[in-house]
Design goal:
The complex is a heterodimer of chains A (352) and B (890). With 352 residues, chain A is α+β, with helices and mostly antiparallel strands. Helix content of chain A is 41%, strand content 18%. Chain A has two domains: 2-88; 109-349, Bira Bifunctional Protein, Domain 2 (BirA Bifunctional Protein, domain 2). In chain A, helix 1 (2-16) runs parallel beside helix 4. The radius of gyration of chain A is 43 Å and the shape is rod-shaped. The radius of gyration of chain B is 42 Å and the shape is elongated. In chain B, helix 14 (496-503) packs across helix 16 (544-559). By secondary structure, chain B is an alpha+beta fold. The chains are: A alpha+beta (352), B alpha+beta (890). At the A-B interface, helix 5, strand 1, strand 2, strand 4 and strand 5 of A face helix 11, helix 14, helix 16, helix 17 and strand 29 of B.
């Protein structure tokens, strides 16, 4: 009897070893565990046995049943994982195919640089002040201590508007953001003429020069100017502030130097140079072998300019500086053609 | 300005300072050295051995150093013919150690050929074997090393050098003939090795446009002593005043006029060392008289002008006393200047005249008739000191020698008696005149920046001294000096408090005085301040508060900017007002970027033709423009009036580079106001064109972006700005937009933008592809004035019921009306109505359309029942039925 049972088990397990997929596993189940399978037949034949034989025979049959069932389960897991492995294999992608893109927006590089500059200045307490792009000669030059025909005007060739009968006060596209200095001082001074408040502003904006449009010269460019006016502002503060700015802008290791220069609206005037970040001061084409990069022009606000702004130069002092975001970008990204900025070629713009 | 270091040494001892040390000190003090050009002195080590990683290259450097062992002063005893070549000679040369036979083809030795032993030996720059020089025959400057070779059968291993070979000039026509006193055998570098500093002279440093000026700065910066020029003249004959008188008619324009007189000059070349210095300084040697004027100008900063005295006597009808006057020109008056150009004047110009008429344009250029003339050299243009050596690099004006021959040939005699003018002119007047006549020169460069009248006399005396020395002329006693307007040198009081207040440093009275006296300010000390008076060469120091600032700048410069500490501001923080307009615009930029737009920035300047494409397509009714009076190009001749034109140009430029392009620009447009600055209006323009999505390897043939793509983005932008309620309406005058595919955007009834598909005529005016182009234009001032609404809708706590309904109605009824009716009919229970289908067809009848909406029913306080939902739906349908005759599509 029991021999037969083990015969059933043996046959079933041998057959199971050949089962390779879910369908044949089901057929196997029907054949070996189904109602008319030898094992089930064996079970139904148990009734024919004597009362004494029955328990042990039943036990033995149950053991075989559960053995077959667990073998089947095991087989099922194996088949499933084989199927999964196969399908994973089949679903393999060529990961080198290009990804699908979406339309991404970007700010113009000049806007990005203006933001970097203004955000550092904002941390240092400088608030943005905007002023018009088209100005009078008085605002752009005369009140800033450039009298008519002054040689300093040669440093800033201007684009004038057609406007009749204005004599020595023609209309022009501002050559720098500095007329905003006068506008700001006058605006602040008007709030309290006897005790004008201190000023700490950043003046960003587009400026214009009478230039040919070439790789090195442009007809328009952005400038960011800073202006500080107060009762205790010194040249040492100017140096400290601008060096702090350079450290934030170009890294804490940035080395600066101040050398004497000339601007009609500041005195003393200076240029701030920064050790060339391309060659580390050794000399390279970017710094024209000098090891230094001209970063900005600066100086103590000229007493006449303070006066023109409504601030008494005997009581107030101040400093101002101006710098070019496009120039900074050109140095940092080694851009050799300034025309890229207003050329609006997406192949340039999308690199920022 | 090109400054030879060797010349500088006439005025200051520079022992212990390298050329780079000097350049660095000058640069930091405001005399920026743009380049160092070596001409004999050794280059700094770092330039020679570029491998040294520690080396710092402070200045742009070029030129050549002369090897002391290999390049020396040589002496030629005889010049013999080459046995096999007519155009070569063999020189018998002694180099201080031994004799050499040196082969050369220099034409300036040919006249000595075959004369046997020369009566007077010739000193030359001799380069021994293996010396490194510039290749005289190469284009540009290329180094080469002398090697032993055979030329036409004669051995050659060394040479007598040309200026090009030594890097002094580009001349290679002949070899250098040194002055007779050159010490044979001495290394040439020791004898005349030099380096030239190319210095940018800023307007306030005009006093430094001379060797003496730079030497004075260097003396102040180093605390060394300035060697003042000593001018002692040996005079003879009758005094100047017997030969000439001066009348100044306009002292404001001509504060001083000085004349000196020198007789019996011989027009001949200047000594070689003088010529070399002039060349290094960028001027061309002419003859000893002209050179003396130029030399004195370069040295002292005072331009001089030489007149041929005998020409003036002829003009005065052989009168021995010439009457010189200076005055404003009469309108229409003319003078042929020595560049051969006949020039017309008006009353703003100042002329130097004799009794017969104009002789020169004051301070700018002399007349041809009275210029110093060299009869022996007809082919060389004789150039007067004030003229033709252009200062600015980009304004080169080259005078053609041939154009000068005609008038020169009218004169037979070389100049032998010279009147030398040194004057002071009004710098503004000079600047205007030089500009009007387009005559930038070394003289007008200096005069147009201001030369102190005190320099006129010094300049003339120095000029006379040099002329006497180089031409053998005899200086007449005295000067004729008309000095009607003496400047008052300003006096300023400076205290330690002033220094502390502006510069932030503590200096005692004595220290301030010491710093300023180094620059030759006269200082009078009191207990608490220094009274300083500006020296006789400075025009840049003002009075009062301005003067104080001027003097404090000098204190800072001489003290050294680098020694001033760096401090953080201790002053009060100003009122914190921010800049809402700027911040709002930046916020808007961020939103535009977030919805996928690339920012562009175009030119503010454009042309009417460019803008006509968008502003008045097909017609010629251009708007008024703010017009540039002096445009650099017609392409950039007016201020733009359309920002859309700017973005459309950007689109046009990129159309072939990307299949989808979405651009925006924020910036001003300019509306002209007669004779006033234009009104600047801040605008936003957007443009969108191309495929709705990016084509990829498995996604193809995507639809074009259309009106609703742009509208969807505008909706996102406005919702990000928190604007509500927003409505869209047809526009009557669509302008650059398609009349049927354009709309205006209103926020709370206020129009803020127009947008839509670009009009076919406008599109055709640009070079674009087949894809339709969408554009939008926002008036930012209008947009900015709209308040943002900051409330939020609470997130519902209870589930919603979703239901789709389709409605059939007249096709003329706008979708926005239906949507409002649905929301109205739902009475607050419909939180969302999304249109998901629009259908027209026979099935539903002609002139009808079906709109299908997905509705969300929601109550804030409970879950709605199905019965309640049915009630809501019925209310909506009823509302639509009553209002627009809509019926539910079954």
């Amino acid at each position: 009897m029991l021999d037969k049972l083990s015969e059933i088990e043996k046959t079933a397990l041998e057959s199971l070893a050949h089962v390779r997929d879910e369908t044949s596993l089901e057929s196997w189940r029907v054949a070996h565990l189904g109602r008319s399978s030898p094992l089930m037949t064996w079970f139904s034949d148990l009734g024919d046995l004597s009362k004494d034989e029955r328990p042990s025979a039943g036990q033995a049959a149950n053991r075989v049943k559960s053995s077959l069932e667990s073998a089947m389960q095991q087989r099922q897991i194996e088949i499933k994982s084989a199927v999964l492995a196969r399908s994973l294999e089949e679903e393999k992608l060529d990961v080198t195919l290009p990804g699908r893109s979406i339309q991404r927006g970007r700010l113009h590089p000049s806007t990005q640089q203006l933001r970097r500059v203004l955000s550092i200045l904002a941390d240092m307490g400088f608030q943005v002040y905007l002023s018009p792009e088209v100005e009078t000669d008085e605002m752009n030059f005369q009140l800033l201590n450039f009298p008519p025909h002054h040689p300093a005007r040669e440093m800033q060739d201007s684009l004038y508007l057609e406007a009749a009968g204005r004599g020595e006060n023609p209309i022009l596209l501002r050559t720098h953001t500095s007329p905003g200095q006068i506008r700001a001082m006058r605006e602040f001074a008007a709030t309290n003429p006897t005790q004008p408040p201190p000023i700490r502003i950043a003046l960003p904006g587009m400026c214009f020069r009478h230039e040919q449009i070439t790789a090195r010269t442009e007809i328009q460019f952005n400038q960011v100017e800073g202006l500080v006016v107060g009762e205790h502002i010194t040249f040492a503060d100017l140096k400290g502030t601008l060096t702090d700015f350079a450290h934030r802008m170009f890294g804490q290791q940035a080395r600066t130097r101040f050398r004497a220069s000339y601007f009609p609206f500041t005195e003393p005037s200076a240029e701030m140079d920064m050790e060339c970040f391309v060659c580390g001061g050794k000399g390279c084409p970017v710094c024209k072998q000098s090891g230094w990069l001209e970063i900005l022009g600066c100086g103590m606000v000229h007493p006449l300019v303070l006066q023109n702004g409504g601030y008494d130069p005997r009581r107030y002092t101040g400093y101002a500086w101006g710098m070019g975001p496009e120039r900074q970008l050109m140095l940092r990204y080694k851009i050799e053609d300034i025309r890229y900025f207003w050329g609006n070629d997406v192949r340039f713009l999308e690199q920022f | 300005m090109k400054l030879p270091i060797g010349w500088l040494k006439d005025f200051i001892k520079i022992d212990g300072l390298s050329v780079e040390d000097i350049a660095r000190m000058l640069t930091l003090a405001g005399l920026e050295v743009e380049e160092i050009i070596y001409a004999g002195l050794p280059l700094p080590k770092s330039k020679v051995a570029a491998t040294d990683s520690e080396s710092k290259h402070e200045f742009k450097t070029s030129g050549i150093g002369w090897d002391k062992d290999k390049i020396v002063v040589g002496e030629i005893y005889s010049v013999d013919p080459h046995p096999n070549a007519d155009r070569l000679v063999l020189c018998d040369l002694f180099d201080g150690i031994q004799q050499h036979v040196v082969l050369t083809g220099a034409p300036n030795l040919f006249e000595y050929k075959g004369r046997g032993k020369l009566a007077k030996s010739i000193k030359v720059a001799y380069a021994r074997e293996a010396a490194t020089l510039y290749d005289g025959h190469a284009q540009g400057r290329q180094l080469m090393t002398l090697r032993r070779t055979k030329i036409r059968g004669v051995e050659s291993y060394s040479m007598a050098c040309s200026e090009k070979e030594l890097g002094i000039s580009d001349e290679h026509e002949g070899i250098i003939l040194l002055d007779a006193d050159a010490p044979v055998g001495t290394p040439l570098a020791d004898y005349m090795g030099d380096a030239v500093l190319d210095i940018a002279i800023l307007p306030n440093m005009a006093r430094c446009a001379s060797v003496l000026g730079v030497a004075r700065e260097l003396a102040a910066l180093t605390g060394r002593k300035l060697i003042q020029p000593r001018i002692q003249l040996k005079t003879s004959g009758s005094p100047v005043k017997e030969s000439v008188t001066i009348k100044v008619n306009e002292p404001e324009l001509n504060p001083r006029f000085v004349l000196g007189f020198i007789r019996d000059v011989e027009i001949k070349p200047s000594p070689y060392q003088v010529q070399r210095r002039l060349k290094l300084a960028g001027m061309r040697p002419i003859n000893c008289i002209v050179d003396a004027s130029n030399y004195a100008m370069l040295e002292l900063g005072q331009p001089l002008h030489a007149f041929d005295y005998d020409v003036l006597t002829d003009r005065a009808g052989r009168s021995v006393q010439i009457k010189i006057s200076t005055r404003r020109a009469r309108a229409g008056e003319q003078l042929t200047t020595l560049d051969g150009v006949s020039r017309k004047f008006n009353e703003s110009h100042v002329l130097v005249c004799d009794s017969k008429g104009p002789l020169s344009i004051a301070g700018i250029m002399g007349g041809a008739v009275s210029e110093v003339y060299d009869a022996s050299n007809k082919n060389l243009d004789v150039v007067n000191p004030e003229d033709t050596q252009m200062h600015t690099e980009d304004n080169q004006q080259v005078i053609d020698p041939k154009s000068r021959q005609g008038k020169a040939s009218q004169r037979i005699r070389s100049t032998s008696n010279v009147l030398l003018e040194g004057a002071a002119w009004n710098f503004i007047n000079i600047r205007r005149t030089a500009k009007e006549h387009n005559l930038p020169s070394e003289a007008s460069f200096r005069f147009s920046r201001g030369v102190h009248p005190a320099m006129a006399e010094v300049g003339v005396r120095r000029g006379l001294q040099l002329m006497a020395e180089w031409s053998g002329g005899k200086v007449a006693p005295g000067l004729v000096d008309e000095y009607p307007l003496k400047p008052k040198n300003p006096t300023v009081q400076v205290s330690p408090t002033d220094v502390k207040r502006l510069l932030g440093i503590d200096l005692k009275v004595g220290e301030i005085a010491r710093l300023l006296s180094r620059l030759e300010f006269k200082c009078v000390l009191t207990k608490s301040a220094v009274r300083v008076t500006a020296p006789d060469h400075r025009m840049d120091i003002g009075e009062g508060l301005v003067g104080l600032a001027d003097v404090l700048e000098e204190v800072a410069r001489v003290y050294g900017y680098d020694r001033i500490p760096e401090t953080r501001m201790a002053d009060k923080l100003p009122p914190q007002i921010g800049n809402p307009i700027f911040e709002w615009e930046e916020h808007l930029r961020d939103i535009l970027v977030a919805v996928g737009f690339q920012e562009v920035v175009g030119y503010r300047l454009t042309s009417i033709e460019r803008e006509r494409r968008v502003l008045s397509p097909g017609s010629r009714q251009d708007p008024d423009y703010a017009v540039i009076a002096n445009p650099t190009t017609p392409e950039r001749s007016v201020l733009r009036r359309s920002l859309t034109a700017s973005v459309l140009e950007a689109l046009e430029k990129n159309i072939n580079f990307r299949e989808t392009i979405s651009l925006f620009e924020i910036g001003p447009i300019f509306e002209p106001v007669k004779n006033k600055p234009p009104v600047e209006r801040s605008m936003l323009a957007m443009v969108l064109s191309g495929r709705r999505e990016h084509t990829s390897w498995d996604v193809k043939d995507l639809p074009w972006l259309d009106f609703f793509d742009l509208k969807g983005r505008i909706e996102l932008i406005l919702s990000a700005l928190r604007f509500t309620p927003i409505s869209y309406a047809d526009i009557d005058t669509a302008g650059f937009l398609h009349p049927g595919k354009s709309a205006e955007v209103k926020v709370g009834g206020k129009t803020v933008a127009v947008f839509g598909e670009v009009h076919p005529l406008v599109k055709a005016a640009y070079d674009l592809s087949e894809a339709p182009v969408m554009a939008a234009e926002f008036d930012l001032q209008a947009l900015r004035s709209i308040p943002s609404v900051y409330g939020i809708e609470p997130v519902p706590d209870f589930p919603a019921i979703y239901e789709d309904i389709a409605l059939i109605l007249d096709e003329s009824i706008p979708a926005s009306t239906v949507e409002s009716l649905i929301l109205e009919g739902g009475g607050g229970s419909v939180t969302h109505a999304r249109l998901f289908d629009v259908y027209q067809g026979e099935q539903i009848g002609l002139g009808k359309k079906s709109l299908a909406y997905s509705l969300t029913y929601q109550a804030a306080d409970r879950t709605l029942t199905d019965a309640e939902a049915a009630d809501i739906r019925n209310a909506i349908v009823k509302k639509l039925e009553q209002a627009v005759g809509a019926r539910l599509r079954s």
